[in-house]
Amino acid sequence: MNEKLEKLIDKKGLRLDGRKADELRPIKIEVGVLSNADGSAYIEQGKNKILAAVFGPREMHPKHLSLPDRMVLRCRYHMAPFSVQERKSPAPSRREVELSKVIRESLEPSLFVEYYPRTGIDVFVEVLQADGGTRCASITAASLAIADAGIPMRDLVVACAAGKVDDTMVLDLMDTEDKVGVADVPVAFMPNLNAITLLQMDGILTPEEFENAVNLAMEGCKKIYALQKEALKTKYMSIKEEVEE
Amino acid sequence: MSSLVTRVRQKQIGQLIDAGKRLDGRGLGDYREIKLEQGLIERAEGSARVLLGKTEVLVGTKVETGEPFPDIPNEGVLTVNAELVPLASSTFEPGPPDENSIELARIVDRGIRESKAIDTEKLCIEPGKKVFVVFVDIYVLNHDGNLIDASALAAVAALLNTKMPNYEIKDGIVKIKAGYTPLPMKSQPITVTLGKINDKLIIDPWLEEEQIMDARLSMAINDEGNICAIQKGGTGYFTPQQILEASKIAQEKAAELRKKLDW
Fold it and tell me: Does domain A27-239 have CATH number 1.10.3730.10?
């Protein structure tokens, strides 16, 4: 990618995959996809395919990690070896350790941790296929999995990235845009509380561009939020139908 | 990290911040005293020590030859690592790096990398085969809060102090010659960290503030005053308005620090 052969946005203002600047990739969300987990969700966003599962609230292992006044949220973000072009070693990389931490910190504000003292909740995220923006899609799915586990929440957490590609501010960057683009700003958001729970950035933006990027990302979040709620309802509608039969 | 601050103390810190004051006498937007010293480790190619109040961070750099990454064959390599040395705090334990030290290293790395602080193309010896690899090792010697800003500052100061070996290519073989040239630098990013306590933003949180704050936001600002890296941390949140306010404060503080620093 050292030679900047490719223009990421064509003369019509369309992106490599034919999207407009403020257009999301096609998103498919399913809730309750794993029978052993207390809650689970699956998301496809573009070529991203990500599974999230939640166990708990349950007794902490090891026990000494439990806290007397609140529950402990643990999170593991992990990429399958076959999820990227070149095989990724299954051992957790430094990137995965950092992402596990920021994903956990983006989900925790949505939980009433004081409701479940001495317990733990484990969130496992497995990226089966990666196509840029996996941390955002992971947060969107993980939050749904927590809701699916029946754990009380202040709001669903939804995440989306915005960034600068060539000279344009774009929404929901895919792999190439993320790598070759100028800047990438992932944002996680709780729409009902107007609270940003994850914010990262790499690349160079002027303060004005940064403000635009955050606003664009929040707009994207709100659109995905609607899909999230729809996915939750779909699951409960299917249970209702089963019961009525 | 669990809080070791008593409730009485938490309340005191919170009430002072509500009144626009802080326990150590600073205003909400003030840094602690910053002391910077460069070139104190002779064996390292570059080094710097930063004292941010009582927080003390030593950074040493080593420059070696190695292979470039296949996707950027004509650029040198930057590697940042952080050690939370057990002598720096009773909460640091020996062992492989935990998520806090990995996050610290990656925040500092991103600030340097994304601001293009090092002219990595000038570190190329033979495209695709041999380049200089710059190792930045962050050594936290005393933890009194805000390791991010102290480490970022020390890392850039150490890079500015780093020398690169001279070399020549004879019959396709790279030979290191005597003498050194300074590491080619293009930008000097400054990272500013804000904490949120009682919905108020404070600059440069020290240890006790760090332990009770809801969330933190670190922004790396380059020479032109543009933002080149951001990391939110902590289990709380920011409103969009607070993010924009924080961005403004970070710009001002970075410009202010830049004027003061002599590196």
Answer: no
